[in-house]
Inverse folding.
């Protein structure tokens, strides 16, 4: 039921987990910073007889309330964004239209909120419960976070940067992969092409069906803007009717097990002109060669089939047999360009085109008129020819091509959104941590300025320290990306999961964004009034 979407589900789960982890790291940093400002309050409670267990319980309750409020707000936001996911989500993604914010989702969110509150709120709570009340009250009014808290904050900040880089790198690789996938050579021109499925099962013989298609082709060519009309057993990327044969080249007998498998496609009339498939050698089919009662005796090969069946020279003029009838010899009259018929990710298969118009074939037509205006005319023309014909799935070929990458487009969209949210949350986290640490070091900066340091040198000092932390985080992030590359490889097309340019570019982006987020706190550090800072210290 899941099809190719199965491989994308773990990647989306990782993206969700990464965003959650970054939010939780920010939460832990904020709780550590807030704990420093509450040292005197906690010390007073301890001095008045409150036990450490009671202190931990109170602080954990605050964390639970914070997570509950965040989880509740997340559920509201999820209900809103889920509407957008249904609208913009790919129709080919299984069950995406049925996605609902049900009881399971609510309970899952509640459990996650509880777990994150306990896990990331416990460290600050335990640290504050170990305060020495007498020393804290005796220390005066100035509170600093201490070397241990500062180290924790920097470590959490580094971890946050690493996770952000992995998510951004994954998003960048998926975007580049998608760009290359949709930009590759198809072998045909889907723009301005319409495909129509026809049901002709009410006809008794194939002669009737072929005569019907002849009349239909003539009628459709009379529609305004229609340039070419053909039929095909299975239009590219539709997978309607596909089968393989094992041709036996005349004059070069091989056991059946050693013969190459070549896909067979039935076409008639101006199929190649309608699809815009270039002729490379020989000629195309002629209408006089189309038989009403059965298969033709001429075929056209694509490049891959020509190379496989006739590797020593030109395929035009070559002959081969298929099936169990050795007397039915097919002659190659032309070679056309390879086309991507099964999936865009797959290389073109060896294929031969057999001239035959049969019941259930698809009609393809090229038009210079607007497709939306032409579709009703096509349906009317089909009814005029014979009321027993049922036309279905009339749609542009470009829409078919687009639908084959719908799952990838959805995955890229979701991961990119997650990466953008993660980067935004990380920027806020960097700003908060650096702003807090700058505020705690006002006395130090005041002394430096009083001793002759310039404001610019103070700004450089802060930015240099931030840059060091960010570069360490970027380094760890690159290592994580290299280690998890195979996890992403199944979703990439023509892109290495270890692309050094992508990793380097994302790393540079993270460094620049982090330094920009730190610029305002660094500027404030350079504008500290030495007299005010020293007076507050006294």
């Amino acid at each position: 039921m899941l099809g190719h979407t199965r491989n994308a589900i773990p990647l989306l789960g990782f993206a969700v987990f990464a965003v959650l982890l970054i939010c939780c790291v920010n939460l832990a940093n904020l709780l550590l910073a807030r704990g420093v400002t509450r040292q005197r309050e906690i010390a007073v409670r301890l001095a008045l007889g409150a036990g450490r267990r009671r202190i931990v319980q109170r602080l954990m309750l605050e964390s639970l309330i914070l997570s509950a409020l965040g989880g509740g707000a997340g559920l509201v936001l999820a209900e809103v964004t889920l509407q957008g996911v249904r609208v913009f989500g790919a129709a080919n993604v299984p069950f995406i239209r049925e996605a609902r914010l049900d009881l399971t989702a609510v309970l899952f969110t509640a459990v996650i909120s509880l777990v994150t509150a306990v896990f990331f709120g416990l460290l600050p709570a335990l640290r504050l419960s170990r305060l020495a009340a007498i020393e804290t009250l005796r220390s005066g009014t100035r509170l600093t976070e201490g070397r241990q808290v500062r180290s924790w904050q920097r470590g959490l900040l580094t971890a946050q940067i690493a996770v952000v880089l992995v998510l951004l790198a994954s998003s960048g690789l998926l975007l580049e992969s998608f760009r290359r996938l949709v930009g590759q050579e198809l072998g045909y021109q889907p723009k301005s092409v319409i495909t129509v499925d026809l049901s002709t099962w009410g006809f008794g013989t194939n002669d009737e069906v072929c005569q019907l298609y002849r009349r239909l082709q003539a009628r459709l060519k009379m529609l305004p803007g229609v340039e070419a009309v053909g039929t095909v057993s299975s239009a590219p990327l539709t997978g309607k009717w596909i089968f393989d044969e094992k041709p036996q080249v005349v004059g070069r007998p091989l056991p059946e097990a050693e013969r190459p498998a070549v896909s067979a496609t039935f076409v008639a009339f101006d199929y190649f002109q309608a699809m815009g498939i270039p002729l490379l050698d020989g000629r195309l089919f002629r209408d006089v060669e189309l038989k009403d009662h059965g298969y033709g005796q001429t075929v056209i090969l694509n490049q891959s089939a020509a190379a496989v069946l006739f590797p020593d020279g030109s395929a035009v003029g070559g002959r081969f047999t298929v099936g169990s009838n050795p007397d039915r010899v097919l002659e190659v009259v032309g070679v056309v360009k390879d086309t991507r018929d099964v999936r865009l990710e797959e290389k073109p298969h060896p294929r031969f085109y057999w001239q035959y118009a049969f019941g259930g074939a698809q009609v393809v037509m090229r038009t210079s008129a607007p497709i939306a205006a032409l579709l009703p005319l096509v349906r009317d023309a089909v009814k005029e020819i014979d009321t027993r014909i049922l036309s279905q799935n009339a749609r542009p070929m470009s829409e078919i091509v687009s639908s084959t990458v719908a799952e990838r487009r959805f995955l890229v969209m979701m991961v990119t959104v997650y990466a953008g949210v993660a980067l935004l949350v990380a920027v806020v986290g960097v700003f908060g941590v650096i702003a807090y640490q700058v505020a705690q070091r006002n006395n130090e900066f005041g002394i430096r300025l009083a001793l002759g340091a310039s404001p610019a040198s103070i700004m450089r000092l802060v930015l240099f320290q931030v840059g060091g932390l960010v570069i360490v985080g970027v380094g760890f992030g690159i290592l994580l990306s290299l280690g998890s590359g195979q996890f992403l490889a199944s979703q990439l097309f023509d892109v290495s999961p270890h692309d050094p340019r992508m990793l380097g570019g994302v790393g540079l982006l993270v460094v620049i964004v982090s330094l920009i987020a730190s610029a305002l706190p660094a500027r404030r550090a350079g504008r500290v009034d030495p007299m005010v800072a020293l007076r507050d210290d006294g």
Notes: The radius of gyration is 34 Å. The chain has a mean pLDDT of 83.
